[in-house]
Amino acid sequence: MHVVMTGRNIELTPALKEYLMEKLQRAQKHFDHPLDVTALLSVAKNPSIADSQTAEVTIKVNGNIIRGQESTENMYASIDLVANKIERQLRKFKTRYYHKGNKNKHAGTIEAVDVSPDVDTDEAVKKALALEEIRPKIVRSKKFPLKPMLPEEACSHMDLLGHDFFMYVNSETGQVNTVYHRRDGNYGLIEPEA
Questions:
Q1: pLDDT value, residue 113
Q2: Domains of the chain from N-terminus onward
Q3: Using 50, 70 and 90 to split pLDDT, how confident is the model at 52?
Q4: What is the arithmetic mean of pLDDT over 20-44?
């Protein structure tokens, strides 16, 4: 496992690094090849944020990105939660990736099964994937003209509309961009890679 750790407003002590590595090793057991992992541990300086200690983990697997983020009052608890989330996502990804051919075999028989997030078997993941086939689908499509504007203008339009995100054509680059509301109250900007 190749891990790149970064700390933001926190010192990465050897104990913290070792704890993170130990927790992430559980995710490696699902794959024969070493995984590329990026971990960001950050502490919000704003005292009004209750869950100020965040652990964010990103893993690249077969051209796909698996990402998890958890925030609590304690960094070790955040690491525990994000490690569990990442392990579930990797197990689910592996089950989907390696069992694609078996997906339609049981399409007619979907049984209702209570699958809690703590269940740790591949069979439970397969049943959850079968249930996923009857989960939400795209039921509405909307088309609208994309207007050329600057990111600041797009943020204003998004706020006026009361939306969480807003797509537009960047008047400086000519590319389709998206602005969105972040949890910290600021805005985010998504731009296509050149």
A1: 40
A2: 2-106+121-132 (3.30.160.100), 148-190 (3.30.505.50)
A3: confident
A4: 84
Handedness of CA 167, 136, 90, 16 (dihedral sign): positive
CA R_g for the chain? 20
What is the per-residue DSSP string for 58-127? EEEETTEEEEEEEEESSHHHHHHHHHHHHHHHHHHHHHHHHTGGGTTTTTT--------TT---HHHHHH
Higher pLDDT, 10 or 61: 10
Listed in sequence order, the residues at least 6 apart from 122 whose beta carbon sits closer than 8 Å to its beta carbon are 91, 95
Amino acid at the residue 173: T
Rounded Cα distance between 108 and 178, Å, is 39
Written as one string, the DSSP assignment of 3-32 is EEEEEESS---HHHHHHHHHHHHHHHTT-S
Lookup: tokens for 91: 């197990």
What is the distance between the alpha carbons of residues 19 and 22, in angstroms, rounded to a whole number? 5
Q: Is the torsion defined by CA of 155, 161, 163, 168 positive or negative? A: negative
Cα→Cα distances 66→35, 73, 104, 185, Å? 11, 24, 25, 25
Give the 3-state secondary structure of residue 157.
helix
Residue with tokens 């200690």: 53
